[in-house]
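Example record for the data management plan.
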Amino acid sequence: MTALFALATSFLWGLADFGGGLLSRRTPALTVVVVSQCVAVAVLGAIVAATGGWSEASPRLWFAVGAGLVGPVAMLAFYKALALGPMGVVSPLGSLGVAVPVGVGLALGERPGPAQFAGILVAVAGVVLAGGPQLRGAPVQRQAVVLTLVAAFGFGAVMALIAEASTTVTGLFLALFVQRVTNIVVGGAALCVSVRRGGAALPPDGFPWRSLPALAFVGLADVAANGTYSMAARHGPVTVAAVLASLYPVVTALAARGFLNERLRAVQAAGAGLALAGTVLLAAG
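Corresponding structural encoding:
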């Protein structure tokens, strides 16, 4: 079950990153974050009310608050990076955040077997190579790399925090709701500051009503990914769940190839193969 939930997380995060990066090329990244999370809060609020999730409130929700504080910063940095550079180049660097939850798992006493340890090394190397990251080039490329590394640490911290935010399924819905409400508060405050400093809150042609379904998909896919990751971490070793969940850049790169015709280089294809090999080792271990 751990592998299934973790791979579902990669798929959902990969599509959410692709959609968020694409939307950020036409709409300010902060607006993409706030609007997509508002949709997620509305849906999660209805689910929590229907399942009686309020009864699961506990001090563990502070982990959800922490994830909500870190998440918008990471998402904003990542969406800006995706808007600046090719998705297939930027996205794999975001997977380096896997070091945070893996480190937490090791600190808590988890010890992967030889096959799993090999799978971790192979999968992480494959994910990085899948985007063929280029650390040299124009200033825009360097800026995109710095933003992505900031986002990577934030994503890793969110993974570690959300895994500790609940112990039951209904509690998970409440934790995700609290996380998203915090996301909106932080993101909304940042958007207000940006507008006061002269930044744009909307594209020149006004609110992107035509993009609302896509914004909703980004928000809901990101929430679902957090949920499936929490389930993966609960059913198996965090070290395994975190690495498998971090294969999402491969999904983003393939989506960019399919929809934007971004060409995959030989190193990217080799990286995708390594990521797949690492997945097999982790699942078999």
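Summary line stored alongside the record: The chain has one domain: 2-284.
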